[in-house]
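Bug #77: duplicate submission created two jobs. Keeping one. Sequence:
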Amino acid sequence: MESIAEVTCTFKGIELLESAINLGSEKMTEIKIYKYEVNIEHRTSPEKGLMLVICSIHVRDEENVYELGKIRTSCIFKVNNLNDYLQKETNQLKLPEQFVFSINSISSSTTRGIMFANFRGTHLHNAVLPIVDPKVFG
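Kept job's structure:
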């Protein structure tokens, strides 16, 4: 159990939801600069105390013409007392900002590792996701 910003959680699992490497252009072997589109989505099940952080990364060429590859993962967290953060009037979760930043950071870093493992040995071997400030997903 880890306590982040007064929220106690446990990392329960990782799922690879999607992975694709697109082939078909000789230009792909010449790419030195990659562009990344990173999206993070939260899904929760307060009654089960579960929070899924779905991280999607699309890798594109420098000109943003070709989608070279993509990966999508789900990091699963068990969050104690998740119901305590549920606003009854709106039925929305209001988690501490620092906790959200932390799980976004954990999830994007985990996805970076999975991405490297899946793209290793391909034309996307050097497409390593840079370190991303988790506050940009807030």
